[in-house]
Design brief:
The chain has 381 residues and is an alpha+beta fold. It is built from 13 helices and 10 strands.
Amino acid sequence: MYSKEQLNEMYKILAKNIDISDELFEDAVKEYQNLGRWLDKNTPAYTLSVYPQGSFALGTVVKPITEKDDYDLDLVCEFEEQYGLSARQLKVDVVKPLLVNYRRITGDIVEKRRCWHVNYEEVPNFHMDVVPSFNNWTCICITDHDEDNDTYSYIGSNPKGYVNWFFERCKKMTDSMYDAYVRNENLHLTEADIEKVKRYKIKTPLQRAVQLLKRHRDIMFDGKPSNLKPTSIIITTIAGRLYENEDNVFDAISSILSKAEEFIVDNKVGDQYYIENPSYPGENFADKWNEHPERATEFLRWIRQAKKDLTSADLLCKMRGDMAKHISEVFGVITGTTVFTEMAKADSSAIKNNSLKVDIKTGSLSSSGTISVPPNHHHGI
């Protein structure tokens, strides 16, 4: 039997297990900083910067399902101004040759609609998606390639604004958790350290919820056509919109999933799906759903399945063996095995310390139960 508090602890452990390690995160930071310095040095006619967007910037990175797969490192290459360059010139004539010459490329540099997809031999565990752009005062203009007509144009975007919006949605819990972290660690931080601690060391229930929802999505759609897989930007946006400062992961996920389907329906414009970019009004993240309604159907199917798998009342009635099997099915065998091994070790340590107890009403194990679990002495072994 499980209590809501135990489910929350389990979800916290799960989220940490699928998160990127500190070492790999620092490697990613060094890489995009190195790329930015190299590009700036080798483009004397231009001033530019390189910075992350997406999950690396938001603190919602999810480990690949298998060790054979790389992390996606989504980067923006932002030129200080347009410099009279057309979208084709900026993307194809300027940025591509620079990326080709930066490091040894593993395979071809692949053009995607709005970026270049690059694998470098010297950068293990990562591939980069680099979006060419230029600063346009209140936003940036990114290159957009219409593959059907082989034409290029600029479209507006605001990745920094999106990051700021997302962290504003986390702010109340971030500040609370940051204060507790500093007290517990007895840290004396300089101003320069504070932002790093807040954004990369402190993970709020919203960030953990997004990580778990994305991993559930990855497992559910593993092996299925990639165009049917719910996109991270829509998952993150809906989660950010619906998060109400819950102070634990389980409640955050429950709140988000319970309202997600209604949110999608209520935000339709006529019969068209419409999920607006909170940092760039007028941009519809769900525009492809209107062209391909099967994508909306799959997204809604995923929401219903996630509610059943992650927040159903039936979870409270599961025994440990059944829960272990369920978690392995929902989050992957490797993750499930790792997490329950870690939990078993924690229980064993708690028993030795006489801090694991049984709740006589529910039969669940926790530190706040009523009857201590005695150590199991295997005599004769």
